[in-house]
Design brief:
Elements (H helix, E strand, L loop, with lengths): L2 H10 L12 H14 L5 E3 L7 E3 L3 H5 L1
Antiparallel strand pairs: 1-2
């Protein structure tokens, strides 16, 4: 999913109130995705060849439950 798609789902499903977090929720989300995709234990990874597209790592969803 692209960053805009992820942000849309967060807002639509009211997963987190991001209205007060910053003036640029998309910028904050982008920084979070970037940081979490670079760490070995990060829950996201960048899709090769696609700019700004991220996916959850396999096994992450079951580990979060």
């Amino acid at each position: 999913m692209s960053q805009k798609d992820i942000l849309h789902v967060i807002q639509k499903d009211k997963l987190k109130d991001i209205s007060q977090t910053s003036q640029s929720p998309l910028g904050t989300l982008g920084a979070t995705l970037y940081t979490n995709s670079r760490a070995m234990g990060g829950i996201f990874y960048k899709v090769p060849g696609k700019q700004g597209v991220y996916r959850l790592r396999v096994g992450t969803v079951s580990a979060l439950k």
